[in-house]
Amino acid sequence: MNGRMVLERFPAGGPRGSWPAEEFAQACRLRGQAAEVVMDLASDAFLVIVRAGELVE
């Protein structure tokens, strides 16, 4: 994934009614990071990413 930084990975088979990747991304957004969730089909996982131009330190 060019120009993106993976903050965290979550398995796609989480418990029913649980959205840990979305919850983590929301917490990042509350801290000012433009985090988003994408699906990595090859590893069957949700990735929380920040695009390179939106990294906040």
Helix content: 10-25%
- How many helices? The count is 1
Q: What is the quaternary state of this protein?
A: single chain
Rg computed from alpha carbons, rounded to a whole number of angstroms: 11 Å
Mean pLDDT: 87
Name the beta content range.
35-45%
> Which series of helices and strands comes N to C?
EHEE
Structural class: alpha+beta
What is the compact description of this entry?
The protein has 57 residues and is of the alpha+beta class.
Give a written overview of the molecule.
The protein has one helix spanning 20-30, and strands at residues 4-11, 35-40, 45-51. The longest helix has 11 residues, at 20-30. 19% of the residues lie in helices and 37% in strands. The model has no long low-confidence stretch (mean pLDDT 87). The chain is of the alpha+beta class. It has one helix and three strands; from the N terminus they run βαββ. The radius of gyration is 11 Å and the shape is flat. A three-stranded antiparallel beta sheet has the order 1-3-2, covered by helices on one side. A hairpin with a 4-residue loop joins β2 (35-40) and β3 (45-51). The two termini are 20 Å apart.
